[in-house]
Design goal:
The structure holds two protein chains of two kinds. Chain A is of the alpha+beta class. In chain A, about 55% of the residues lie in helices and about 15% in strands. Chain A has 38 helices and 16 strands. Helix content of chain B is about 40%, strand content about 20%. The longest helix of chain B is centred in the middle third of the chain and has 18 residues. Classes of the chains: A alpha+beta, B alpha+beta. At the A-B interface, helix 3, helix 5, helix 7, helix 9 and helix 12 of A face strand 2, helix 1, strand 3, helix 2 and helix 3 of B. Chain B: It is found in: Cytoplasm; Golgi apparatus membrane; Cytoplasmic vesicle, COPI-coated vesicle membrane. Chain B: This is Coatomer subunit zeta.
């Protein structure tokens, strides 16, 4: 009995795990047994298992340790025990990347792979390829070719898979095995067929014609393996996407026919492909949708999941097509798998009409308390999308959200609700008052400091512009009395915003700030004193610069610049103007982020490094190039401009990097000719008047299928701003050396000069302007009046037919940042005022007001205020 | 939605893992260098994955950019991970193959203790199912036939006492179940 008890206890505390307390050093010690003259198979297998277990648990071996153990392991080839031998192969694969001189076992493995024992052969091939490099591969090439067409399916599969791994090391060698792979596609074994197709496609994928032929042949011969058919569907879909032929092509027919395949895997793959093809029309979508609809009712969770996830994607592009499945989707809302349920809801919300919003919200309310936080977040995101789609429903949604805010929940969940309310407020002015009121109430009992701080910041920004700002102040001041120092400090900043924006409240605010100066916390006292003294000055421009506007520079760059400054002290004071300005993410980017997260649970894993701006990345790259570092800080990098068609011999793209007085043109060139090696690649420019080319940095070598970069440094026209907008002719110049397409080595040392015409390159106004976000544009505008030069002009934009179009074009052309959400044109209006802000290279502020009126095209009155008259003139003169 | 057309490649499996009922790793392999490159990240992911899946037996979950299909038995959890756009049914077929192979290797006795006792064979089976992210075989019978089963060919005398007791227990269990 007592023995039984002990046994039970042992089982409970995991004492049954024989691998629990093993240590690396002990195992390495034990591994010396491998060197014994007579090998104890069982013992060695056990030790080897322990070693592999340790490695699998994440234990690291040093190179010496690994090499030692690897060499003793090779002794085990003497044993004939099948398991032990197979474990040795595993060990070889594990250690091949750490240990030195692993090629020592090549001959043993070659012997095994060509031997009689079938249990060895397949595994030996895979182990062999893990230790082989490009040069060694040539020597085993013969065996590999034989193995690919071997009658034993395991051997053939192993050889094919290993070949695919080897293409990374020696693509040229593997290419020569294409005939064998071709033969293997006809194999009866389903896995061999699949692997052969994978290899074949990989070898040929750069050759469009060959892929077309391959697909044409295989679609006719009905493959046995469902995996191979899935692969073929993917290849076909890719081909369809690249081709321009209509959807009545045989390729599309093939995919459609796969919807009737007997394997669910293939049916789903085909439906997925049809849904994701960009030009699928709703009519062509119908059969795919009905297949997915069928899957929605499947007893298998995975199948339901796959179906609803795909329907969710369809709902983005063809919401109408999915409505047929609405009933099935509603059934899935109560699915036991919460991923399926949430995807079903988000899909429904996307397809739902305005009239069904109320019903859907009721449905969600019925189960929202049962689901976990992550899924609640997904639901909240769906509600956000809904609110943006149906702004008139904001009151229903807002009430729902505030009810959710009051419920229990973690920080992430609460933050996402607050985020959603904030988005709704920003997007829909009508919802603002109600939304702010909800948020005010929420901070009354919000246990998350970071969230409270964010909301206080928002209240400070938006609160002063409500009808009754004093109402908010009460809530904010309550925080000062009740909360921890961080929240108190944020509350003080928020109050200061009210003081700066609402003159009639200033006096009261000063009283409150005076009280805060007695606070027990340093930061709170400091802030209160700071704001109180600024507000005491009664100077509008001070308010603007030090209370209302936030820091414009990019924080990582500021950190770097400050670090550099402190490391090399100089007498000069630190100049914040030298720090690059933070780029403002475009709307598309933020949209993209949103779509990515659909239905996905993202955990807060290890923190990712702070996102560095594109400019920051370029700045780092450019500063490494001699001659560019001394140009000063990078001001702006333009988007990529393509200077050739994408399917030509040489593919050239340009990025324009703008500095204070210089512009650096970065040309990324791709050589698509396999029989040419290009040298001394450079771009010869024919600059417009005033520009001078200072330097060319050629790309020394440009082999086939590689991207090389060449730079041209130009100086902007001095004291001649109007000419800084210009068009350059461009020619790509280089030395061609013919070479062997297989090896990439040139046939001769002698090359010949050649050139290639590129499209003209434009330096536009937008290239020289960086966007700046002005929180309080109106104040900045008024403040600028006495300091700036003002230019005004009226234009008629006859090519534009709507205000939205005009706004979009103006923003794009000028490269300025719209302020106060003036890029959104309210529906049904015929006049609109667009407010823009930015900075010209050299740190010259620009403010632009564009009054637009719609009547037979768009008429625009453009007013520019800038600290530099020439810049203002440049803007007014280039528009039009 | 753009770009979600799947790239035709054989590299479909991002990872395979077998965890115990405390979420500790018994065996795990990650095949994509860009997905959880360090042991620390892998552990964090597994911990998270386990916490999300050990209660709800729901078969599939999307987590941290991966689609994970899973299956559990007694005190073991089997996972197969693929990219978030991957064909879930293919991943499921890999998972089923993994589970069925282990089940056959352990003679339907799928539990932690048994896996640890035959860890070498289970390792070999995992290696036969997926190599560097490519599915080698998804048929459990053929996987099992490729990893030579051993238990029969050990003479009784060479087995340790514990093993004898274990096999006796097993026999007893089966006879009770009949």
């Amino acid at each position: 009995m007592s023995a039984f008890k002990r046994d039970k206890k042992e089982e409970e505390d995991g004492g049954g795990n024989p691998f629990q307390n093993i240590e690396k050093t002990t195992v390495l010690q034990e591994a010396r047994v491998f060197n014994d003259t007579t090998i104890n198979n069982r013992k060695c297998t056990h030790i080897l298992t322990k070693l592999l277990y340790l490695l699998n648990q994440g234990e690291q071996l040093g190179t010496k340790e690994a090499t030692d153990v690897f060499f003793s392991m090779t002794k085990l080839f003497q044993s004939k025990d099948v398991i032990l031998r197979r474990m040795v192969y595993l060990g070889i694969k594990e250690l091949s990347s750490i240990a030195d001189d692993v090629i020592i076992v090549t001959s043993s493995l070659t012997k095994d792979m060509t031997g009689k024992e079938d249990l060895y052969r397949a595994a030996a091939i895979r182990a062999l390829c893990s230790i082989t490099d490009a040069t060694m591969l040539q020597s085993i090439e013969r065996y590999m070719k034989q193995a690919i067409v071997d009658r034993n399916s395991a051997v053939s599969s192993a050889a094919l898979v290993s070949s695919l791994h080897m293409t990374k090391l020696a693509p040229e060698v593997v290419k020569r095995w294409v005939n064998e792979a071709q033969e293997a596609v006809n194999s009866d074994n389903i896995m061999v067929q699949y692997h052969a197709l994978g290899l074949l496609y990989h070898i040929r994928k750069t050759d469009r014609l060959a892929v077309t032929k391959l697909v044409a042949k295989l679609t006719r011969m009905s493959l046995k393996s469902p995996y191979a058919v899935c692969m073929l569907i993917r290849i076909t879909a890719k081909l369809l996407e690249e081709e321009d032929s209509g959807n009545d092509s045989p390729l599309f027919e093939f995919i459609e026919s796969c919807l009737r395949h007997k394997s669910e895997m293939v049916v789903y793959e085909a439906a997925h492909a049809i849904v994701n093809l960009k030009r699928t029309t709703s009519r062509e979508l119908a059969p795919a949708i009905s297949v997915l609809q069928l899957f929605c009712g499947s007893p298998k969770p995975t199948l339901r999941f796959a179906a609803v996830r795909t329907l969710n994607q369809v709902a983005i592009s063809h919401p109408a097509a999915v409505t047929a499945c609405n009933l099935d989707l509603e059934n899935l809302i109560t699915d036991a798998n919460r991923s399926i349920a949430t995807l079903a809801i988000t899909t429904l919300l996307k397809t739902g009409a305005e009239s069904s919003v109320d019903r859907l919200m009721k449905q969600i309310a019925s189960f929202v308390s049962e689901i976990s936080d992550e899924f609640k977040v997904v639901v909240v995101q769906a509600i956000r999308a809904l609110a943006l789609k149906f702004p008139r429903k904001h009151s229903v949604l807002m009430n729902f959200l505030s009810a959710m805010l009051r419920d229990e929940g973690g920080l992430e969940y609460k933050a996402s609700i607050a985020d959603t309310i904030i988005t709704i407020i920003e997007d829909n002015p009508e919802a603002k008052e109600a939304g702010l009121a909800h948020l005010c109430e929420f901070i009354e009992d919000c246990e998350h400091t970071s969230l409270a701080v964010r909301i206080l910041h928002l209240l400070g920004k938006e609160g002063p512009r409500t009808k009754q700002p004093s109402r908010c102040i009460r809530f904010i001041y309550n925080r000062v009395i009740l909360e921890n120092p961080t929240v108190r400090a944020a509350a003080v900043s928020a109050m200061a915003q009210f003081g700066a924006t609402c003159p009639d409240l200033l006096e009261n605010i000063q009283v409150l700030l005076a009280r805060c100066q007695m606070d027990s916390d340093d930061e709170v006292r400091d802030r209160a004193t700071y704001y109180s003294s600024i507000l005491g000055q009664q100077d509008k421009s001070l308010y603007n610069n030090y209370i209302l506007e936030t820091l414009q520079v990019s924080i990582p760059s500021l950190e770097r610049s400050l670090k550099e400054y402190t490391q090399s002290p100089s007498d000069q004071p630190f100049d914040i103007k030298t720090v690059p300005i933070a780029t403002i993410p475009t709307r598309e980017e933020t949209e993209l982020e949103k779509h990515k997260a659909e239905g996905m649970i993202i955990s807060n894993g290890p923190a990712k490094p702070a996102v560095v701006s594109r400019e920051e990345n370029f700045a780092e790259k450019l500063s490494a190039i001699p001659g560019i570092a001394e140009l000063g800080p990078l001001f702006k990098s333009s988007d990529v401009v393509e200077l050739t068609e994408s399917e030509t011999e040489y593919f050239v793209r340009c990025i324009k990097h703008c500095f204070t007085n210089h512009v650096v043109l970065q040309f990324d060139c791709l050589n698509t000719l396999s029989d040419q090696l290009l040298e001394e690649v450079r771009v010869q420019l024919d600059p417009s008047e005033g520009y001078s080319v200072l330097k060319e940095i050629p790309c020394p070598k440009l082999p086939y299928n590689e991207t090389g970069t060449t730079y041209v440094v130009l100086r902007f026209p001095e004291n001649d701003l109007p000419n800084s907008v210009g068009t350059f002719g461009a020619v790509l110049k280089f030395i061609v050396k013919d070479c062997d397409p297989n090896t990439g080595l040139p046939d001769t040392d002698e090359g010949y000069d050649d050139e290639y015409m590129l499209e003209d390159l434009e330096i536009t106004l937008g290239d020289q302007i960086q966007k700046i976000n002005k929180a309080n544009w109106a104040a900045a505008w008024d403040e600028a009046a006495p300091l700036c030069v003002e230019m005004e002009d009226t234009y008629s934009l006859s090519s534009m037919s709507t205000l939205e179009e005009a706004v979009k074009n103006i923003i794009q052309f000028l490269g300025l940042q719209p302020a106060e959400r003036s890029d959104k044109v309210p529906e049904g209006k015929t006049t609109h005022t667009l407010l823009l802000a930015g900075m010209f290279r050299g740190g010259i502020d620009i403010l632009v007001r564009a009054k637009l009126a719609l009547a037979d095209g768009v008429t625009m009155q453009l007013t520019v205020r800038s600290t530099d008259g020439d810049v203002a003139e440049l803007i007014t003169s280039t528009v039009g | 939605m753009e770009g979600s057309l799947l790239e035709p490649t054989l590299y479909m499996v991002k990872g395979i893992a077998i965890l115990d009922n405390d979420g500790n790793r018994i065996l795990a392999k990650y095949y994509d260098k860009n997905v959880f490159p360090t042991a620390k990240e892998q552990r964090a992911f597994e911990k998270n994955l386990f916490s999300k899946t050990h209660r709800a037996n729901a078969e599939i979950i999307m987590l941290d950019g991966l689609t994970c299909v899973y299956r559990s038995n007694v005190d073991l959890f089997f996972y197969v991970m693929g990219s978030s756009h991957e064909n879930e049914l293919i991943l499921m077929s890999v998972l089923n193959c993994l589970y069925d192979s282990v089940s056959q290797i352990l003679r339907k006795n799928v539990e932690k203790r048994a896996v640890l006792d035959s860890l070498d064979i289970v390792m070999l089976a995992m290696d036969e199912i997926c190599d560097g992210g490519i599915i080698i075989d998804a048929d459990s019978n053929s996987v099992v036939s490729r990893v030579a089963l051993r238990n029969d060919d050990i003479p009784l005398g060479e087995q340790t006492v514990a093993q004898v007791i274990q096999s006796a227990k097993e026999q007893l269990k089966w006879s009770l179940l009949k």
